[in-house]
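User: Here's a structure from my thesis project, written as structure tokens. My advisor, Dr. K., wants to see whether a designed sequence matches the one we expressed. Can you design one independently, without my sequence as a hint?
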């Protein structure tokens, strides 16, 4: 292994803007992916590593959760951003004790997240002592003792927080929640709290399970696929291949989004010779909706469906499904018939003709899939919006039939698996009772803190130890100043990580960085046996993942080892959980999972099937709905939308194309035509002029919230962009400081990052490098 020279930090003065692209992927994607991979890994390591991504005997991509095809898999079963994610993890750059000796924490805190991530893989456990200026090495045994002493010194277990990133494998997730509950707390915040919690909340009430009801094969059986509040071209690029196959099979595709996204306009499949040179238009219709207008759209479509049913009775509403399998239909119908379509037009920015054409497609489709992501979930009324979309499918009988259903598209590669394994602050009694019976512990029943409540608890002094299993909590969370202040209020912060990130320089009185293996790394037991982990994709398929790369340092530990070794130190030798056995044999963990987790019977055997196995989903499998009524529930919601205050704008935060969550791969968002910079705000040209600014002006963004606190980010460049009037977009984490901690979705407590009221002011400082 060798270490390359550090990259130069960002310089926003080099930013340039070109016209947005009209074609995604193709030759350019292949070239960019390979250049990035070779730059991080070298030629031979790139060839050996990428050949194993998402293959049956390889490792699961650490990027998104889009499923692999059930049949033939192509040699390159990954996308451009998947290749970047793998390269980031498999880089030959390293960050060891000498790096931390050269750079103080204060110096590192002044670097951008991009610079920090580009330094390489962490190699040694490191500690920042109280009052210290630099991290220094610590051996594993001493690190575990420090954590155990801090945890045992708390006045109650609920003063500890156990955060989880979606990258954590099933075996780790199961043991991690077992450790937290053995310790006595349900404080298990996770990244799902900040993304798809609204989906789980809505779907659990509507159909009885918080997961999607479709499989990858359903896409080629669908007549109509609706993609709402989602940008597959950047966030889930392999989804474009599934949409292309669906179109070839005759499906129509409707894109609903405030921004025109390149991947849904044109797609060149890099996996085929024809696709490299010839693009296909993915979306048959593009509904450029205003931010926060999705609930109004779904309600307007509901009204139009009932009008279509009036014109042709018995042809639109699936009365057999509704009568046999649904509850609350009459109240829903009454509510929809009272919807004001003129208000729907105002709220959505769409025309009556667009609404009617979309309703006609829904009414004529025999198999409809509704896909969505953060554009719906991170709204104040995100739960209700997803309920309204689900209502449309229920009225048409589109649950539990081939080619139809709900499809929340998850981000992290195992965020759904983490929840299945018990990473949730409100796990049901059945799970907790099974856990207690299996291990002879007594799990707490009091609900714990989610991500937002965890920040509040640290801020208010009610939580004193923060343990992060992966991720970059500081940069993922809202209200950055409040989040950072909260973490600094802790007595101890611990981060299990592969790479350096912002969370390591925002620390408690004492801080630890524990370096761990990545998905691509070879994981050997103490006896030298090769270990495998399992993951669950966005469509409930569970399969094995086997890393093969030699770890960059002998000091790395697997996440399983870290949990088990910490538990042995914390609980001592008399604890009823066989931590040492689990440390040595992951099959033993899976056998325990089989006895505790619903749907995981014969886990070890079934996960070794050719494509793994699919977890049960009663609505999909048998039209069974484990809800309070025993049926699928139609929801009735008052209509809410987002008028734009005079002289103000509504901001949504989003990723660039060179980014995955808080990991910044590079500084180009080439699909949107933005290069060598990230401090931009995309604004409709008429809004720029109407507010008295000009293209390329530097501005401050100031969010306005009911608490009267000024939240400001400085030195952003105005970029004219085809957004709806009154709506703007900018990248996170740079604009996370503008999202108030208390600005959350009703019922799910998810931060509302897609609906922040802001004003623009002339820049108070120039654009430049900024964490």
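Assistant: Designed independently from the structure alone:
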């Amino acid at each position: 292994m060798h270490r390359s020279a550090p990259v130069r930090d960002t310089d926003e003065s080099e930013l340039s803007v070109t016209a947005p692209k009209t074609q995604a992927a193709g030759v350019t994607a292949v070239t960019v992916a390979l250049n990035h991979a070779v730059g991080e890994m070298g030629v031979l390591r790139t060839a050996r590593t990428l050949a194993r991504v998402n293959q049956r005997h390889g490792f699961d991509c650490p990027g998104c959760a889009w499923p692999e095809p059930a049949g033939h898999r192509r040699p390159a079963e990954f996308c451009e951003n998947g290749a970047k994610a793998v390269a980031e993890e498999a880089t030959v750059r390293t960050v060891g004790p000498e790096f931390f000796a050269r750079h103080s924490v204060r110096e590192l805190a002044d670097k951008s997240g991009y610079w920090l991530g580009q330094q390489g893989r962490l190699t040694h456990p490191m500690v920042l002592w109280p009052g210290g200026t630099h991290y220094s090495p610590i051996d594993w045994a001493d690190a575990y003792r420090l954590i155990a002493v801090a945890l045992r010194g708390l006045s109650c277990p609920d003063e500890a927080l156990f955060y989880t990133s979606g990258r954590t494998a099933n075996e780790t997730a199961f043991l991690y929640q077992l450790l937290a509950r053995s310790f006595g707390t349900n404080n298990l915040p996770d990244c799902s709290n900040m993304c798809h919690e609204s989906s789980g909340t809505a779907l659990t009430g509507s159909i009885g399970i918080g997961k999607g009801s479709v499989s990858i094969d359903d896409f080629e059986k669908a007549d109509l696929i609706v993609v709402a509040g989602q940008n597959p071209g950047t966030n889930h690029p392999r989804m474009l291949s599934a949409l292309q196959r669906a179109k070839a099979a005759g499906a129509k595709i409707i894109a609903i989004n405030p921004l025109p996204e390149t991947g849904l306009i044109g797609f060149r499949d890099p996996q085929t010779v024809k696709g490299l040179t010839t693009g296909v238009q993915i979306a048959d219709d593009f509904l450029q909706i205003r931010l926060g207008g999705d609930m109004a759209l779904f309600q307007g479509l509901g009204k139009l469906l009932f009008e279509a049913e009036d014109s042709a009775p018995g042809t639109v509403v699936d009365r057999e499904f509704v009568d046999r399998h649904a509850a609350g239909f009459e109240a829903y119908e009454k509510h929809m018939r009272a919807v004001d379509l003129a208000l729907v037009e105002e709220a959505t920015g769409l025309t009556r003709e667009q609404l009617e054409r979309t309703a006609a497609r829904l009414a004529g489709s025999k198999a409809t899939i509704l896909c969505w992501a953060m554009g719906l979930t991170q709204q104040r009324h995100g739960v209700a919006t997803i309920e309204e979309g689900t209502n449309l499918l229920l009225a048409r009988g589109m649950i539990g039939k081939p080619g139809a259903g709900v499809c929340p598209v998850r981000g992290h590669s195992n965020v759904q698996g983490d929840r299945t394994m018990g990473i949730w602050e409100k796990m049901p009694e059945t799970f907790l009772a099974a856990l207690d019976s299996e291990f002879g512990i007594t799990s707490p029943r009091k609900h714990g803190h989610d991500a937002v409540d965890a920040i509040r608890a640290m801020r208010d002094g009610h939580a004193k130890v923060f343990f992060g299993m992966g991720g970059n909590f500081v940069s993922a969370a809202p209200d950055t100043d409040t989040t950072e202040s909260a973490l600094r209020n802790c007595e101890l912060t611990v981060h299990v990580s592969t790479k350096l990130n912002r969370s390591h320089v925002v620390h408690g009185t004492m801080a630890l960085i524990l370096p761990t293996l990545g998905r691509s790394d070879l994981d050997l037991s103490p006896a030298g046996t090769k270990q495998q982990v399992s993951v669950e994709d966005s469509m409930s398929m569970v399969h094995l993942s086997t890393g093969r790369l030699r770890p960059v340092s002998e000091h790395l530990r697997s996440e399983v080892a870290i949990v088990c070794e910490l538990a042995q130190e914390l609980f001592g030798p008399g604890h009823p959980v066989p931590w040492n056995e689990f440390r040595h044999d992951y099959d033993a963990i899976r056998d325990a999972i089989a006895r505790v987790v619903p749907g995981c019977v014969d886990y070890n055997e079934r996960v070794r099937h050719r494509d793994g196995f699919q977890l049960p989903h009663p609505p999909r499998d048998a039209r069974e709905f484990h809800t309070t009524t025993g049926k699928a529930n139609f929801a009735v919601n008052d209509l809410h939308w987002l008028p734009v205050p005079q002289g103000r704008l509504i901001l949504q935060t989003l990723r660039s194309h060179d980014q995955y969550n808080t990991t910044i791969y590079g500084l180009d968002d080439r699909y949107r035509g933005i290069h060598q910079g990230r401090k931009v705000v995309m604004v409709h040209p008429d809004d720029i002029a109407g507010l008295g600014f000009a293209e390329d002006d530097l501005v401050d963004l100031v969010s306005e919230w009911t608490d009267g606190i000024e939240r400001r980010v400085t030195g952003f460049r105005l970029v004219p962009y085809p957004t709806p009037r009154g709506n703007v977009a900018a990248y996170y984490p740079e604009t996370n400081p503008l999202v108030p901690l208390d600005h959350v979705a009703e019922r799910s407590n998810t931060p509302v990052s897609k609906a922040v009221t802001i004003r623009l002011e002339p820049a108070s400082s120039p654009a430049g490098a900024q964490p």
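When you compare it with your expressed construct, this may help: The longest strand covers residues 711-720.
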